[in-house]
Amino acid sequence: MTNKLLALGEPDFAQFMAGQWKMHTKQPQVVQDELRKLQVTTLSESELIEVGALACHVHGEHLGDWAAGVAYIESLATSRRTISDATRQRLWRQRAILLKASHDICDLEILDAADRFHVLTLATPAAVLMGDPTYAATIYTEALALLALFADVSEPERLFGVMTANLTCDLIERPDLLPQQQSILLTLAEKSYAIWQRIGDEKDKDKAWFRLTQSYIAARKPVGYGSGRYARSSNIAS
What we know:
It is built from twelve helices and no strands.
């Protein structure tokens, strides 16, 4: 099915990818299987980058399968006889996100400041959700320090705002948080709130306020709280 879709042309590839992004949150393993099928297809360089981005996200933030994600992206980089330096750099940046999130050896000094910022920013949610939240706090601090270098550029701040907003939502939607996740949650939500108050429209600001309010509640939710209800059968006499 995948091969047939890709054979039909670019619009069908875009539709296929949109479907995978829509599905990936609830069915990451299904998307992982679909990504494996793409390894035997011929992709353009722009398609390689798009597929790599989805693979990086799914393996990093939803499966925590660092090694498989790295291997998959490396396979994309070698799937064509020739590949431009720009495309290879984008794929290697995706690979670096997984390596950094997993606390593996990852030399970011070979990247320029913009690419280091991108890697650190997107490695943060993967480490918080699927790795070591304490280590993730270190990655977050490194990304925040680099953000200061781009004070006059809107794109990095928006990237950081989107990352912190999405990660905040991921955390507050979890039924139980580790103590380390509770600790970083407020840091993320407060920074996200500050960014969206500065760069967002009224809708962005309202959403940021609501996320922050939910975060204060989630960060103080007792472990094992569940729904908060008591079982009626064992607590109220018949």
